[in-house]
Amino acid sequence: MIVHNLDTDNSVLKHFIAEIRDVTIQGDQMRFRRNIERIGEILGYELSKTLNYRSKNITTPLDVKPTFLSDDELVLCSILRAGLPLHQGLLNYFDRAENAFISAFRHHSNNMDDFEIIVKYLATPSLQNKVLIMADPMLATGRTLENTYQALKSFGIPSQIHLVSVIGSKTGVSYIDDIFPENTHLWIAAVDEDLNDKGYIVPGLGDAGDLSYGLKL
Prior knowledge:
two-stranded antiparallel ribbon, 217 residues, Rossmann fold, 8-stranded mixed β-sheet
């Protein structure tokens, strides 16, 4: 897997990451969602540099200007519900992409720390020979991306796979390296050192779904 960790360079991206981590700002759900969206836009821009482009002439009111435009067919797949703001950020830039949505959640048996990832809902177009972009803001253990990838396999073989995350753990990044094809690209804004006993990223930011849309039962 090819890892693109944007945290290695200083940019405005770090301001957005700082705000989504900051407990004094997190209470503003609208700002939290917008920051995730803006991070998605930045990650999408960097991802776009790896797509395939072809020459095309554009007719202006005064002349013809040759340029290069991507001719890849894209499918954006987001994991509900936390992935929705990240999905919107990517869709702002890849506005002609097809869209897929999948639900995946942690099921804790008897409220114990151990959990399994359950996939219940999936809506997707064909993935055959298309560029699949999977968006999941928190790459903690990597098991959510693993399970959703397994669920998508019956819908075709993508020409490329790109994973987009906001914050991940070193453990999670290492785990999915063994799951996805070696030419898979991971685009991530920050990688943290640890996971706690419950499988959450430390220092991380908490539950991205709750911070975006409110607490769940």
